[in-house]
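It would be a great kindness if you could assist me with a short task in structural biology. The matter concerns a single protein, recorded as an amino acid sequence and a row of backbone structure tokens. Kindly check, if you would, that the fold set down in the tokens agrees with what the sequence suggests. Thank you for your consideration; the sequence and its tokens are set out here:
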Amino acid sequence: MYLISKRISILDDLLNRVADKLQLDQTRRDKVEKSYYDICEWLEKDEIFFGNHELNIYAQGSYRIGTTVKPKAKKEYDLDFVLEVDVDYRKYNPLFILKHLERRLKESDNYENKIELKKRCIGINYKDDYHIDIIPAAPKEYFKGIHIKISDRKKIEWLESSPKGYIQWFESNYIKEQLILEKAASIEKLPEKPSYNIIQPLQRVVQLIKRHKDVYFKDLDDDYAPRSIVLTTLSGLFYNGEESENDSLKNILANIFNMIQKTSNPIVIENPANSKEKFSDLWIEKPHLYKYFKSFIKSFHNNWIKLNLVDDITEKHKLLKQMFGEEVSIKVISEQTEYVNRLRKADLLNISSIGTITTSNQQKFTNIKSTKFYGDVH
């Protein structure tokens, strides 16, 4: 990934600061990494099933693509990992690997009282901190490493999934050179935390949308909120390579809004790497949830238009608080104010009529000790 060089607007800077506060902090990353490798080691030592097969264990979802969001209130980080067992799925009952995973985890005092049986995975809850969902899988014939088969407890059948294909698709939206994913060994190394200056606008936008989702649905059960994978996919589909987070989010919201206005039926969201994997199937089963999604998009879209039209900085700050939460917004507004004041005192500040922060002396700027600034300053 490459640093995007740009003249950064005051609003873009605020958005980057908001997203910064939502990142998985290093302390938690260290804990997650230790938990991950401990689980892998425990599974590999299984003498009944897992130890007899090649295992491919890797991160997927927001942790893998760099779009984790700090949960509100006392909720925990939700982190997803795939446990791919090199067996011919056609020879096994769909629940076979899932039951072996449950058995093996219950054999450990470390996990016995932490596990939660879910529809397609088993969760391990690290109370008040994070939980890890482990999704058992088998490679699909001829597509090892890209397409896999996963279990479903309710349907008791093998379902299509392509987590690595999805990662390649998502990253291709902002990385123009061909990426080669790490070749699967027994345990795939977890992705390192990217430095903030190379986190791309698309990743930031996904974090901001997910954060607003948490704020918007804070008083409702989690089932009412749209799935993060749906919001991430729509963001990737409508991202046009904008260098500005504000422009990216404005265009993405406008395109989603226009899409849902064209039909009264629930839109269908597929995995771009595998059309057989549907992310929006719950809207067919429960149409009322789609109505909540439409209301969420309409409200977000309208507020973003208002944010870009209003000139008064106090009103902008008020809208930011409404959309992303008062606590995080107050922090970032304070940080930016402090940063701008430091530049002003050093006679380095130039804010253009369009709200772009520039400096009059690049050399002098490098000697200023300030809070993080996102993007190159010209």
